[in-house]
TrEMBL record:
GO terms for molecular function: peptide hormone binding; signaling receptor activity. It comes from the Eukaryota. Residues 63-189 form the Receptor ligand binding region domain. This is Receptor ligand binding region domain-containing protein. Keywords: Membrane, Transmembrane, Transmembrane helix. PANTHER family: ATRIAL NATRIURETIC PEPTIDE RECEPTOR 3 ISOFORM X1 (PTHR44755:SF11), NATRIURETIC PEPTIDE RECEPTOR 3-RELATED (PTHR44755). One of its GO terms (biological process) is signal transduction.
Length: 194
């Protein structure tokens, strides 16, 4: 089967969300019971993803995985005790203004504690800069531009990147490979639409 089977079968986004949820809530010593939310406080998750299927990570692919992760969190008494996840979703359309618009709307009515997404670099950048001032974390499979890595500690301290590709490592691998075989000419084929 291998990695290519996982990638093509669209199960990769589900694995990413399960990893995100496990990562985000492992250190919290809380527990939960399904259905008894009246005495619990919400952890407000704002899921900011596009609906357009031309992008690798969309609402249709990611939300079912998030629902599975939520069910697992709620059924495990060792993870959430006094809290439950309250997930809201907005379509960013991968537009730089839309992610920020929704972030501001949810922030001012106090309905966001953590951002899941956005995925597109131009949408991530302004929202992440503002989230840093609000002291709100962002977990995303996006933010793949080099600047997010380079300025991780200084400009983007609230960012947690998860996902299938670390582009900086991929570049280093590629350069090592080209150097090893003394290649002098290289052609790349790329597409946004897989």
């Amino acid at each position: 089967m291998g990695f290519s089977h996982i990638w093509k079968s669209h199960t990769w986004p589900k694995l990413v969300i399960l990893t995100i949820c496990a990562f985000c809530f492992t250190d919290m010593s809380m527990a939960s019971e399904i259905g008894s939310r009246q005495d619990k406080k919400p952890i407000n998750v704002l899921l900011l993803l596009p609906t357009d299927t031309k992008y690798m990570f969309t609402h249709a692919l990611m939300f079912p995985a998030l629902e599975i992760a939520m069910e697992k969190l709620e059924s495990n008494d060792s993870l959430l005790r006094d809290y439950y996840l309250n997930v809201s979703y907005e379509d960013t359309m991968c537009h730089e203004a839309m992610g920020m618009k929704y972030a501001i709307e949810y922030y001012f009515v106090k309905l966001v504690d953590v951002f899941f997404g956005p995925i597109c670099d131009y949408t991530v950048a302004p929202l992440l800069r503002q989230a840093t001032f609000w002291n709100l974390p962002m977990v995303t499979v996006g933010a793949n531009a080099w600047g997010f890595t380079k300025f991780r500690r200084t400009v983007f301290p609230m960012l947690t990147r998860v996902g299938p590709v670390n582009h900086y490592s991929l570049v280093n691998f590629f350069l090592e490979y080209v150097g090893r075989y003394n290649w002098t000419k290289v052609r790349l084929v790329s597409t946004l639409y897989l």
